[in-house]
Predict the 3D structure of the following.
Amino acid sequence: MSIGRSPAAGSRLPRLLLGLVAWTAGLLFFFPVLWMFLTGFKHESQASTDPPTWLFTPTTEQYEAIFARDFAPFLVNSATSSLLSTLLVLALAVPAAYALSLAPVPKWRDVLFFFISTRMMPAVASIVPLYLIAKSLGVLDNITMLSLVYTAMNLPIAVWMLRSFLMEIPREVLEAARVDGASLPVQLTRIVLPMIAPGLAATALICFIFAWNEFFFAVSLTATRAATVPVFLVGFITSEGLFWARLSAASTLAALPVVIAGWVAQKQLVRGLSLGAVKG
Amino acid sequence: MTATVTAPAVRRAPKKDASPPRPRGRWRRRLPLLPALVLTIALTQVPFVFTLWYSVHSRNLLRPGTDRFVGLANYAKVFTDSAFRNAAVNTVVLTSSAVVLSMLLGVALAMLLDRRFFGRGIVRTMLITPFLVMPAAAALLWKTSMLNPVYGLLNWALSPFGVGDLDWASRYPMATIVMVLVWQWTPFMMLIVLAGLQSQSPEVLEAARVDGAGWWQTFRFVTLAHLRRYIELGILLGSIYVVQTFDAIFMITQGGPGQATTNLPYFIYLKAFRGFELGEAAALGVVVVAATIVIATFALRLISNLFSSEGMGA
């Protein structure tokens, strides 16, 4: 853990107060999520009351109801598209990042900026043709198609991140291996991959988060068979009316994988979010 | 956790470009790049070419067989459509206010977290959570449990201040969306700024203190100067994501009331998937991309500076 800022200029009281302010801010930001979690364990009649219900006997009836209503396929679709696209991204981004760092192609800089520029292009600009092409190929509402779209969406981020990790490998280490007669495959598998393993994990986490939480492509390109968790949640706006407790239970399940992954990998988060520019 | 910025990118290898390898070697170098490049082009550039093509055709999914070339008619429609101008203005207002507000809050929270206090790890964990929660789920949570006029927690919490059953989403639609986005994006800004703060050398701060600088002076002239790059990076990346906001609008206001919160992504979505006017939607897409290119040119130059200047290596 990092060293705190130099001993605060003031006495103990202001420091205590500032700690208190930080706690208040933290609780305020976290509170809606906590409330969602709690509401998921209420009866429907306790979920919308004025004043709000704070004390109640927890029930799992909402969770049972969700799974009785075929929530599982949506979870499976989300997991499939997120994991598949993350694997694909890594498989494509590692060689690409290598060709943009350790063994750079001519004009590597232009290529690097081409990648990031595709991330700036609004998704809406390509949604119409993507929809029509998918439709004519018969891959609308198809989980592989959705995974490919997520792969293209996350690839620029992954290339930038992985490149920043590859650049950190000391040149001398590779040089020494080369002098010792290590072939390229040996260099790659014995030196490069182990050294960027934490970077790979961070990249995978970021790609997983973006794919899991993605909604626009999911709602535009899927219908029933390939629909993901956020699409399931949309159903609550229209058909479910005031089923807040059930909605909260479903939302909790939807958010849980990424929240837990993010909590566990807090240190990698900064690096990933800044495309590798900022080390956390 | 030591927070430093990645090693300066001096080790990047531009000098190698000076002596181009022989053609064969060059292709061997290019080979690992190709799969990623091909997929990216196939799924982002090729569709855009189609977008251009559709944008000069009239095509309505509900009337198959009516597809015909219409020249620039779709563009004419776009530019004479006041709803388009409204959506463009909304996009600018939404993006800039959400990004600026979350950056201000992010800096404040990062300053608070950049000091030792009891339970700092827990507070940090709580603060990053809004960013991790699935945006669609977060939007529904705000729409129902938080902002409902009668049962919502916000009005309950504000009731001592005389706020009655206020319907936030219809009375202050834009502010409501901005609030939800700020709640979501402040953690992002905070994390980047916090990393910046923790990479600040204690010696410089100590020197400022010895020179008799007060807290505010130190913050204003030393810390903020050091943070500038991090703040720029946060604003830039935040804008790239926030400008595409869709989930919150789709879930909370459906672009309304009227057109009050319709931004460009939601506007194009409506045209394509509710109105089925694909030609017009495509023309809209082209216009948005043209605008994005102008803005992105500046943004890319900024990124280029951010990543290449010493201290923040790419």
Notes: Chain B touches chain A through 128 residues (CB under 8 Å). The radius of gyration of chain B is 24 Å.
